Amino acid sequence: MDRHEIKGHEVIEGEVKATGNGAHVLVPKDWRGADVKIVRTSEPTE
User: What InterPro entries would the database entry show (predicted)?
Assistant: First the structure.
């Protein structure tokens, strides 16, 4: 696993959920309009 350092304001943990032909992660509504980065921390499961 690689190590990455990211400067930011807040961290949440969540699960990626299937939606249509892709997937999404839910974040709090007050994050609307903010820049975010998503880091995968485990191998995907089918």
Answer: DUF2080_transposon-encoded
